[in-house]
């Protein structure tokens, strides 16, 4: 029982966001004891609307559409504007230093103006810093720039597919925060900080 109390105290000391993150990303890897204590703490705090948030289930089309509509109506996490609906896009970036090449791809969400601004910044960074690594820097830089250019010209449905993927990856947080606009915008800001 001493171990259970230690786990209980650990979960009690975490923030709401940390608990939700564990529930979304690590719940399947917890021991039965840890899982039950995590559920107790989350229920005690009233963080979740439904029990099934713990499961990594894929939302159905109706729920996907509901969350796409919800996200599109939020203020832009970059500029705060509500004038245009939010969109999503995958952006790529490459940074190289002689024998080291790092390529990174992530989903960004914002109004069309902010998406263009962030995408231009990633392209510039890639164009300036991506080609320095041999032999992969040049190849990965070319691919990243070509894919970013293609994403600009992609039909809107292809870009909306990135919304679907974002929602599936963050379904627990979205369900938990669906009635809290401020937390949803913070979630989008954290997503965009990955770029």
Element layout with pairings:
Blueprint (H helix, E strand, L loop, with lengths): L1 H12 L2 H10 L6 H14 L15 H12 L14 E11 L2 E11 L1 H18 L6 H18 L2 H14 L1 H7 L3 H13 L2
Antiparallel strand pairs: 1-2
Helix pairs in contact: 1-3, 2-3, 2-8, 5-6
Describe the protein:
α2 crosses α3. With 195 residues, the chain is mainly α. Residues 49-53 have low confidence and may be disordered. It contains nine helices and two strands; from the N terminus they run ααααββααααα. A two-stranded antiparallel ribbon has the order 1-2. The chain has helices at residues 2-13, 16-25, 32-45, 61-72, 112-129, 136-153, 156-169, 171-177, 181-193, and strands at 87-97, 100-110. Helix content is 61%, strand content 11%. A hairpin with a 2-residue loop joins β1 and β2 (100-110). The N and C termini lie far apart (44 Å).
> Widest sheet: strand order?
1-2
User: Which stretches are poorly predicted, pLDDT < 50 over at least 5 residues?
Assistant: 49-53
Mean pLDDT: 84
Structural class: mainly alpha
As a percent range, the share of helical residues equals 55-70%
Query: How much of the polypeptide forms β-strand, as a percent range?
Result: 5-15%
> What's the total count of β strands?
2
Silhouette: globular
| Rg calculated over all Cα atoms | 20 Å
Largest β-sheet summary:
2 strands, antiparallel
**Element string (H = helix, E = strand):** HHHHEEHHHHH
Number of helices: 9
N-C termini distance: 44 Å
């Amino acid at each position: 029982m001493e171990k259970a109390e230690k786990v209980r105290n650990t979960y009690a000391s975490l923030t709401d966001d940390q608990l939700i993150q564990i529930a979304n990303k690590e719940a399947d890897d917890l021991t039965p004891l840890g899982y039950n204590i995590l559920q107790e703490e989350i229920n005690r705090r009233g963080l979740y609307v439904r029990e099934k948030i713990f499961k990594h289930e894929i939302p159905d089309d109706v729920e996907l559409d509901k969350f796409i509509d919800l996200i599109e109506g939020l203020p832009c996490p970059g500029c705060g504007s509500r004038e245009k609906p939010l969109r999503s896009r995958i952006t790529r970036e490459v940074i190289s230093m002689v024998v080291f090449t790092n390529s990174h791809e992530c989903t960004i969400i914002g109004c069309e103006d902010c998406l263009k601004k962030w995408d231009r910044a990633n392209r510039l960074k890639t164009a300036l810093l991506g080609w320095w690594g041999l032999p992969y820097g040049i190849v990965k830089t070319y691919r990243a720039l070509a894919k970013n250019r293609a994403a600009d010209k992609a039909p809107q449905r292809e870009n909306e597919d990135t919304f679907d993927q974002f929602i599936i990856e963050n379904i627990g947080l979205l369900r938990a925060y669906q009635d809290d606009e401020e937390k949803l915008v913070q979630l989008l800001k954290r997503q965009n900080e990955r770029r």
